[in-house]
Amino acid sequence: MKPLNLIAILLFVSGAVWALTRSERTVREIQRGYFAAISPFLKSGSQTEAYARSFLDEVQHSKVLEAELGAVRGELGRLHIIESRYRELERENDSLRHAVDFKKTTSFNVAAAQVIRRQPTTWWQTVEIDVGEERGIGTQLAVLSNDGLVGIIDRPAKDRSSVILLTDEACQVSAKVENSPEVGILSGQRGQFEGTPLLRLKFLSKNAALRAGQRVLTTGRGGIFQPNILLGTIVSVEKGAEDSEALVRPAVDFADLGTVFVVLSNDSPKK
Q1: How many CB atoms lie within 10 A of CB 221?
Q2: The 3-state secondary structure of the chain, one letter per residue
Q3: What is the dihedral of CA 201, 206, 210, 213, to 10 degrees?
Q4: pTM for this structure?
Q5: Per residue in 120-133, is it b (16+ CB within 10 Å) or e — as a string?
Q6: What is the pLDDT of residues 32-52, one digit of tens each?
Q7: For 55-93, how does the pLDDT look when each residue is reduced to its tens digit (9 = 90+)?
Q8: CA distances (Å), 153 to each of 148, 188, 254, 263, in order?
């Protein structure tokens, strides 16, 4: 045993023997002095213990709240998924209802189709739809929406087809202006990438008297597009030295194509 430990033990034993050999009064005074000396430490220890218990209770409460918060977040995420699915079903229902209404009211024999593919690099030129040769789809058939002409079938396959959109400059349509003698060729314009592109109606008369808002319709000439299909409305007229041209806002929202209708023949209306 180390000398310092031995000395400490001897001092403790000596103090204890001395205290026990004193009178009862002296012992009580020693006890009072001892407890008075250690009382602040006892109070401090008691407060520390209380603080420790309070801290542990808060930690436990926080864990319970964290678990409850996690459950609420999970439920909120599930509700967001349900709401998103509900909105999707609502859009599909609206699309189907419009499709049924269109097939009931149109005089054409049409096949409903959904746009299934669209490339960002050819957004305003082509789309792919989910009907093809199995449904009697061939080339050069008009494609419509509830609002007007969408484009023309380009390359049909077994169960899908490529459509050239009216906003592509390769899609040219014989067009007339409502309540006007003006007739021209309508097509898309090259290099338009922001917003829905405007169409250009070319080969109008030099002094074409047109106003903004007049409707532009198909003439039916050429045997591809049936007459009186809505194409768009006049935005402005540009007069040149030999003829005039007009900018036309499409009737169809080409930024958001969903359900479309392929006219199954050019000359056989629905019976």
Answers
A1: 13
A2: CCHHHHHHHHHHHHHHHHHHCCCHHHHHHHHHHHHHHHHHHHHHHHHHHHHHHHHHHHHHHHHHHHHHHHHHHHHHHHHHHHHHHHHHHHHHHHHHHHHHHHHHHCCECEEEEEEEECCHHHCCCEEEECCCHHHCCCCCCEEECCCCEEEEEEEECCCCEEEEECCCCCCCEEEEECCCCCEEEEECCCCCCCCCCCEEEEEECCCCCCCCCCEEEECCCCCCCCCCCEEEEEEEEEECCCCEEEEEEECCCCCCCCEEEEECCCCCECC
A3: 20
A4: 0.64
A5: eeeebbbbbbebbe
A6: 665 565 556 555 555 666 666
A7: 666 667 777 777 877 887 888 888 778 777 767 666 655
A8: 15, 16, 16, 10
Nearest C-alpha neighbor of 210 from the set 241, 243, 187: 243
